[in-house]
Design brief:
4 strands, alpha+beta, four-stranded antiparallel beta sheet, elongated, about 110 residues
Length: about 110
């Protein structure tokens, strides 16, 4: 199965660059980011017949969590974890991850 927008030429170029970096001893780290909402906004609801369905939502107090993770060889670790409460943000940034990884290889 192949993605409809897959390009074998671009894939071959990427693979050759990846192989070259690996041969030179560079660590290959795969990273991804994902975000999550703490609450689901409901577009529909229930109310007695003849009564409007009214609800309130504090748009300023939405809580969102973002996580950035990385995979090096077979080890998964988080680089950054951010929780937003409206305008307030709590950020945990794990420092020196690549330095830790290079020490781990020794």
């Amino acid at each position: 199965m192949e993605h409809p927008k897959a390009c074998p030429i671009k894939r071959a170029i990427f693979q050759s660059r990846l192989d070259r970096f690996t041969q030179q001893g560079y660590p290959i780290v795969y990273m991804d980011e994902s975000g999550f909402e703490a609450e689901t906004i409901r577009s529909h609801g229930y109310a007695p017949i003849g009564k409007p369905c009214i609800d309130s939502y504090n748009w300023q107090a939405s809580r969102r969590t973002n996580v950035i993770g990385a995979l090096y060889e077979k080890m998964l670790f988080a680089l950054e974890y951010v929780v937003s409460y409206g305008e307030e943000t709590v950020q945990v940034n794990l420092v020196n991850q690549l330095r830790y990884l290079s020490a781990y290889d020794d």
